[in-house]
Amino acid sequence: MPSYLRLRLSMAGTLALLIASSTLAITVILSFLGVFSLTGLLFMVVIINIAQWLLAPYLLGAIYRIREARPNEYSQIQDSVESLSKKYRIKTPKLMLADIPIPNAFAYGSPLTGSRVAVTSGLLQTLNAGEVEGVIGHELGHIKHRDVGVMMFASILPAIFYYIGYSMMWSSMFSGGRDRRGNGGLAALIGFASLAAYFILTLFVLQLSRLREYYADRISAESIVNGPDKLSEGLAKIVMTTGRFARRGAQFKSLSGFKALLISDPNRAAEESAELSSWRSGRELVQEILSTKVTTADRLLEVLSTHPNTVKRIRALQELKQAA
Q1: Is the pLDDT of residue 230 over 80?
Q2: d(CA 266, CA 252)
Q3: What are phi and psi of 66, to 5 degrees?
Q4: In what order do the strands lie in the sheet with 114-120?
């Protein structure tokens, strides 16, 4: 696994490229159309994303029937949340329980609700106490690094170009392909260019998300006794069990909108677990995953994912264990 310094530099570099590319593209567009033609649209996109960030905890709670754990409920997990929060020097988030059958966990929150860590009913049924602790350590790592806010900010930039692109395309269709200066086809050209910028910037955002997953993995592995093994085995079980759900025909479309928050991408679980054999212990699954070859197709799929390839994540955790 990359060192803290390399991870921080990579994340900072990716974010800087994202901001710089966005600023350059916006400047070019405004130079053609004038500031006032897009000011309202940019303002609207920013407001929508901020409102989504502020209200998302309430929406998630309603959709997935998330509730706060009672004081004496799952006391061992609550103790882990409290002790790790002290170790990370962060305010203890609320422990939430999500009525979702697939095993997963996620950190979320906003200034209106404070930080929260949710574990699914499937996670509690699948993982043992040590593995849950490793997962909790990972999610608290996201809170420590303010990943929810960082990713919200990063996601606004591609969204701006997405809306610019479609607004310009529709404008060209319904105005005869001329902008207010009478340049035929310019609006359509800017629309295509904006959608291209949206795709490129989205790749930057996905790369930033994967780096932050590695970062959260590392803090969990280094802060918990036998952290690399606990988190590795937890990830292996999550992928294996989620893959079984997928192969039985379970659909995860409802989770796609916030899969960046999850510890593992449910939409890739079927592919990542396809080569694994029948259910085994966490340690046996880890060894089986470590022997799996990461193909070129796996690497290409990873570029379009919010999460690193699970084989690579577990290998990085085991390398960290050997280096300790």
Answers
A1: yes
A2: 7
A3: -85, 135
A4: 67-68, 94-98, 114-120, 105-110
How large is the greatest C-alpha to C-alpha distance in the chain, in angstroms?
69
Distance of CA 273 to the CA centre of its chain: 20
Q: What is the DSSP letter of 297?
A: H
**Higher per-residue pLDDT: 169 or 154:** 154
pLDDT at residue 209 tops 70: yes
Strand partners, 235: none
For the chain, how many structural domains are there in total? 1
Q: CA 263 to CA 136: how far, in whole Å?
A: 10
Q: Cβ distance 171 to 164 under 8 Å?
A: no
- Where do the DSSP E strands lie in the chain? 67-68, 94-98, 105-110, 114-120
How far is Cα 169 from Cα 164, in angstroms, rounded to an integer?
9
Positions marked catalytic: 139
Query: Full-prediction pTM beyond 0.90?
Result: no
Structure-token match 């009672």, residue found: 70
Query: What tokens does 294 get?
Result: 């990461």
Specify the DSSP element, H or E, that contains 116.
strand 114-120
Task: Evaluate if residue 232 carries a pLDDT over 60.
Answer: yes
